[in-house]
Amino acid sequence: MDDTSTILKGREIILAICGGIAAYKSADICSKLVQRGDGVTVAMTRDAEKFITPLTFQALSARPVHTDIFNLLDSSDPQHISLTERADLMLIAPATANLLAKVAHGLTDDLVSLIISASACPVIFCPSMNNRMWENPINQENVTKLANLGYTFLGPEEGWLACRNVGAGRLSDPQSIIDEVTKMLGDPAAMPKPVGPALPDIPAAERRKIVAQGASPGLQTRRKTAPEGASQFHPRAPHAFATKLHSGQRVGVACKS
């Protein structure tokens, strides 16, 4: 077994596929990750299914493929949010201009953008699009915003595009993507941080055990560390008022929502 296989063996990766012609290359990425010992869970947008079928990825990953927010493959996680609590990282390949715009503006109207918004693991974008779309000032503004927030980008490369143009916008070579993912997983200093409210610093393998028990890594740690009687919700969340029973009476209490 080579060093690469040792690094990736037992890791969990979410591979998300958006609707672009480069989606066919995602099958190669999925296959290469699985061959190196990764557990790969695939999520697809509806547009991605127009380019390549979920059955392809089910065969390559030997796992069900997530395609819809309301398709309950796991009834205990109707929004598929816990997927990222089990994962070491999430890889979006190809990442379209549409998907980047959604994430940059907080839209979550499809499964992939929803998972990214609630991600508990690092998110890596591998863009692929027409060169003019890539260079469009609005798209560049979205890319800059996401990069400044802490999201990682691999590519795109310059070269021949499906639209017959030559320029920037080509999905990075699958092997180079695999090499970069391997580097991140093998070197803690190279591993990006999750974006958003931080989960406790728990190794992904330990998070998987917690999620397997039906709990949330964040909530479980807050239960351990919060003082008795203290709120277990995020301190920066807005206040709301709720009621609870106390000595037979209903008492108003401040809580987080």
Classified in CATH, the superfamily of the largest domain is: Flavin prenyltransferase-like
Distance between the termini: 49 Å
- Average predicted confidence as pLDDT: 81
Highest-level CATH class of the largest domain: Alpha Beta
Radius of gyration: 20 Å
Task: Write the H/E string, N to C.
Answer: HEHEHHEHHEHHEEEHHHEE
Provide the low-confidence segments as ranges.
220-228, 230-257
What oligomeric state do the depicted chains represent?
single chain
Shape: globular
Protein architecture, described:
By secondary structure, the chain is an alpha/beta fold. The protein folds into 2 domains: 3-208, Rossmann fold (3-Layer(aba) Sandwich); 228-257, no CATH class. Helices cover 37% and strands 20% of the residues. It has 11 helices and 9 strands. The protein has helices at residues 3-8, 23-35, 54-61, 83-86, 97-104, 111-117, 131-135, 137-149, 174-186, 204-212, 217-225, and strands at residues 12-17, 39-44, 89-95, 123-127, 152-153, 157-160, 166-170, 239-246, 249-256. The strands form 3 sheets. Strands 2-1-3-4-5 form a 5-stranded parallel sheet, with helices on both faces. Helix 2 crosses helix 9. The longest helix has 13 residues, at 23-35. It is globular and about 45 Å long. It starts with a helix and ends with a strand. The model is unreliable at 220-228 and 230-257 (pLDDT under 50).
